[in-house]
User: Fold this.
Amino acid sequence: MTDLPFLSIDPATRRVSLDARDPAFYGDPNTTYAALHAACPTFYWEEQKAWFFTGYDHVNALLRDRRFGRQILHVATREELGMPEPAAHTRHFDKAEEHSLLEIEPPEHTRLRTLVNRAFVSRHVEKMTPEIAELANGLIDRFENDGKTELLTTFADIIPVTMIARMIGIPEEMGPQLLKWSHDYVGMYMFKRTRADEDAADRSSKAFADYVRSVIAERRAHPRDDLLSHMIHTEHKGQYLSEDELVSTTIVLLNAGHEATVHQIGNSVRLILESGLDPAQLFSDAKATERTVEETLRIGAPVHIFQRYCLEPCEIDGVALKRGDKVSLLLAAANLDPNKFSDPLTFKPMRDEGANLSFGAGIHFCIGAPLARLELNIVLPLLFKRLPGLKIAAPPVVKDVYHFHGLEKLELTW
Assistant:
């Protein structure tokens, strides 16, 4: 047992019972992760019916291990695995996910990623620095004289979706609609999702896909200097992306390109303000800013779980796995491994103990990581410089969206 009422651990059997919908858990998952590290870093989560890994070395290795993959049906049938047929009521969501970069394996993954990757390399996204700074300054201009704001709706929600829309070639006035579709869409990844969540995700998947198809048709006829035109008109080894591949790739880029960064802006501002450290010191130069950003990513990761299928029988940390077993890698918990990071629950921007795993690793390493890092390195220093005396005005409200981690509300004053 533990001191946490929603968590019970049996270290002997490595069995854990944990209610992921308990606000005490998703409001502060790091405390639970610390308890798991202390008792059994590898554990079987009863409610999820799967093995979970929290150790930094295990998670880092399993993200790269080719005995595991995001797909399983390319090496086994549903019948062999005892896997049910896909649900009819989520067919539009499943169709949108069919060619998602996050869900496929080589060679298909290699072809899609190669076509998209050029747009996201650091030297390319760094050209967006003036645009990001201009957008952030313009948003701050709107509320600077108010002496207060709710950061998510006036700032954090807007910057990432605007930048990824511009990059892909989606009109930025579509931002609010993209946010709504995306929020519904990622509802499919929530633990204990309801039928209502699934219906909303499916409706939004269809609307999202239909909209993307209309933009693709327009770009086929009238190409522009944007990522969507590049994906439509560029070939890789003699092959162009199919219509369905273009839709899946555009949706995953729009979702992944902003959802996590919205959360991370809120998480980072909260961490900095609650730490009591001096923002002027944290952002004193580019190196200090970079370290501060990486530490907020380590201790306040926006995506907590990455799952992979076992493709062939193997044993990891004494756990025998068979083909078709799904393992869950707790990225956010790996960032708190006391064997890797000293005093792991403490926010220490000057630590130099290795890379966090918030963007994953291996072939599915987050393609948008350079863009997310750039946005954070620009907008966080700007916010604290423009609004000296920034303070949290009311207890932050955490979203009930585990296994994502972000804020619903962050009320600030200055």
The radius of gyration is 21 Å. The CA atoms of residues 144 and 387 lie 7 Å apart.
